[in-house]
Inverse folding.
């Protein structure tokens, strides 16, 4: 009987630990879209997403994580080339008082990293033929 009770206690403790660990990690939600327009994307990304959305881009996925910090990732398609995307974000982020700390660009890919206080924006874009894929990761402490 003691062995059974001991196992039950261990299983209960394991379940309690797992539940506590998941709660401490926060929540995460991913949504997929069928390339929705820029105006619809602004609504889908919520006002918490403090990064401008590239003109004429279409949102195909968003991901939100509310762990120790808020992280929102938006994935977009654009008909434009990576150098144009990089140049636009570099200018637009500076206009909105972001400090651009890194820019790497080539014909088929680019990366822009910027900070605004404790907020951070990391943008990666790759060109795969007829369109570019833009992935923007925005994060800030809760």
């Amino acid at each position: 009987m003691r062995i059974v009770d001991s196992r039950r206690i261990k299983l209960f403790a394991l379940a309690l630990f797992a539940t506590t660990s998941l709660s401490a990690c926060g929540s995460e939600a991913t949504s997929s879209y069928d390339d929705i327009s820029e105006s619809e994307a602004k609504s889908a990304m919520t006002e918490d997403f403090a990064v401008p959305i590239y003109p004429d881009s279409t949102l195909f996925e968003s991901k939100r994580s509310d762990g120790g910090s808020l992280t929102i990732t938006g994935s977009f398609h654009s008909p434009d080339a990576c150098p144009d995307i990089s140049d636009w974000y570099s200018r637009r982020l500076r206009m909105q008082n972001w400090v651009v700390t890194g820019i790497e660009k080539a014909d088929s890919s680019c990366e822009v990293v910027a900070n605004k206080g404790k907020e951070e924006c990391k943008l990666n874009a790759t060109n795969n033929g007829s369109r570019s894929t833009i992935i923007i990761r925005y994060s800030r402490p809760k």
The first helix runs from residue 2 to 25. The chain is about 30% helix and 45% strand. Residues 92 and 130 are 24 Å apart (CA to CA).
